[in-house]
Each structure stands twice: as C-alpha cells, then as structure tokens.
Write a structure and sequence with these properties.
It is built from seven helices and nine strands, in the order αααααββββββββαβα. By secondary structure, it is of the alpha+beta class.
C-alpha cells in the first residue's frame, strides 16, 4: 500500500502534494464544517415555523452537498498528485461533518478560542484534519517496503474525536474555576474560611444569602460555608417558616426541618458577620466540629483561595 505522497522522495511534486493537503485541512475542512452548523440553524427555523416536514426534503440536498465536497476535494488533491486522493477527501469531509456533531452534543465546552461555536468548530476541524493527514504524510518516511497509506490518518482522527469530550470537561472545570476565583477576589465583604485539615476548598458560588464556599472531605462529601450578605437581618431570619425549628445555643443557631440532625448551623462571628454551614446529600457532617474551625480570611489570602480552586497543569 502506497503512502499519501508521491513516490518521488524530493522535488516539486512532493512539495506541491504537501501544500495541497495542508490547504485542504487548514482551509477546506473548516469551511466544510460550517455546512452542518448552517444546516442545523435552517432546520431549527423550519421547526419553529411549523414546517418540520420540510426536513425530509433536505436529505437529498444534504447528500448532494456532501458528495460535492468529496468530489471537489478529490479533484483538488488529485491535481497535485496526492496518492489515495479520494480516500483522503472522504476522510477530510467526514471529519468536517463529525467534529460539529461531537462538539455540539458531546463536547459543548471544547472552545479553545473566543467567539463561540462558529469559530471553535472550524478551528477544531482544521486541527483534527491536519493532525490526521499529517500523521499519514509522516508515515511515508518510516522505514519499510510498505507504507500504511491513510490508516494512520484514520486512527489519529478517531482518537482525537474521542478526546474532544475530555477536552471539553477539562475546559469546563477550568472555566468554573476561573469564575469561582473571580467571585472570591471580587467579593465586597470579609470572607469566612474553614481551616480544617480534613476539608479542602473545591468551589465558590454566589447565592441569595451571600458567598458560598464548597469544601470536600476525603470521601468527596461536600460542606457548604456561606458568608451572609445580609447579616443585619439577624441570625434567626427564616426561623418562623412552617416546618422550620431553630435551636439557639450562645452564638449559634441550629436550623432543623424534619430530620433530627440540623440541616444548617449558623454562627454569629465576633465582628458582626454571620456564617452558615450545611452538609450536602448523604450523611451529615459534624457541623459543630467544623464551626470551631471557622476563621476570618487572612490579609492577602484571597489569591491563595482562588488559585486553590483550579489544580490544573496550565495554572
């Protein structure tokens, strides 16, 4: 089986073939990937206009456009002497159709560039296509009498498509960590932190009460520590709700709903702040023991808290 490049080891034919493949991957494939995006927008418009039956009429049009793209890519590569031009064209066109589907349904957060899906999907399509056919071109330089043809390209494209959801999940965690870090840095009131070796800061969110820090123990069970925005309303606020029972003990208020264990423990800090602790689902944490380890943030500690939220290689 021959490689994707001409047999000539050097010279213009080989350089022209490499240039044609790169042009198809870096320009043609991203442009092709815009077709599924436009098709989905058109289909959505038909559905919203109660013309959903018109989607069946699109099937021959879609098939014709895909075949036209394959034919044009084949003519382009064949004109520059690329071996297996048809197979490479089918692979690039298939990649341009597959990447939008994978990104839209399985990897919505795979967005390395700003600009939304209309920018990131063509970019990812170009990267996947280039790496795939790049592997096929490099394989022609391997020693041996028989080149593997387009098989390396197929393998690389398949693996990269499987990795797109992994990239999406990593970028989702990175984005969430960036947002949480911005919340911590921009919070306008003193923050109360849990200083306990068994609990690790994992997330930060804004709630109707204030800034909520989420801590996880060694088993992954969450504990929520909320610094209240409206401490002036008093530590007993909401205790008169039906089904709610509050038990006060000094500077703490245990809030019960229906369970015997408190659903929330509120602590009045000495500087006028109110902090509440509540467990996540499952067995409740020892709220009283955790409350003893609450303390106000130290000067300059916010940056450390924000950085602790994203233990990722690129941070």
């Amino acid at each position: 089986m021959d490689g994707v490049l001409p047999r000539a080891p050097t010279g213009r034919p080989r350089i022209a073939a490499v240039g044609a493949i790169l042009a198809l991957c870096l320009v043609g494939a991203p442009l092709m990937s815009l077709f599924p995006l436009a098709l989905w927008e058109f289909s959505r418009a038909l559905t919203l206009s109660d013309a959903g039956m018109g989607l069946f009429l699109l099937a021959p049009v879609v098939t014709g456009v895909v075949l036209l793209m394959v034919w044009m890519a084949d003519r382009w590569l064949a004109g520059f002497g690329v071996v297996h031009a048809l197979t490479c064209s089918v692979l690039v066109t298939g990649t341009a159709m597959a990447v939008p589907v994978v990104v839209s349904f399985l990897a919505p957060d795979a967005a390395p560039l700003p600009g939304g899906p209309n920018v990131n999907i063509p970019f990812l399509t170009g990267v996947v296509s280039t790496l795939g056919l790049g592997a096929a071109m490099l394989s022609t330089r391997l020693p041996g009498a028989r080149a593997p043809g387009t098989l390396p390209a197929v393998a690389v494209v398949f693996v990269l498509l499987l990795l797109l959801p992994v990239l999406s999940e990593a970028m989702r965690g990175h984005t969430a960590a960036e947002r949480a870090g911005a919340l911590i840095r921009g919070y306008g009131r003193p923050i109360t932190v849990l200083d306990h070796p068994d609990w690790t800061l994992a997330a930060a969110h804004r709630t109707h009460q204030g800034l909520r820090l989420t801590y996880l123990d060694g088993d992954g069970a969450p504990l929520y520590v909320v610094t209240w925005d409206r401490a002036s309303e008093g530590i007993d606020q909401g205790c008169d709700y039906p089904g709610t029972r509050c038990v006060r003990s000094g500077d703490t208020v245990a809030v019960h709903h229906s369970a015997t264990e408190p659903a929330e423990l509120r602590v009045a800090m000495g500087d006028g702040r109110i902090v509440s602790l509540s467990p996540g689902c499952g067995p409740g944490a020892d709220l009283a023991a955790a409350a003893d380890r609450l303390r106000p943030e130290s000067p300059g500690e916010r940056d450390l808290l924000a950085e602790a939220l994203a233990p990722l290689p690129w941070r």
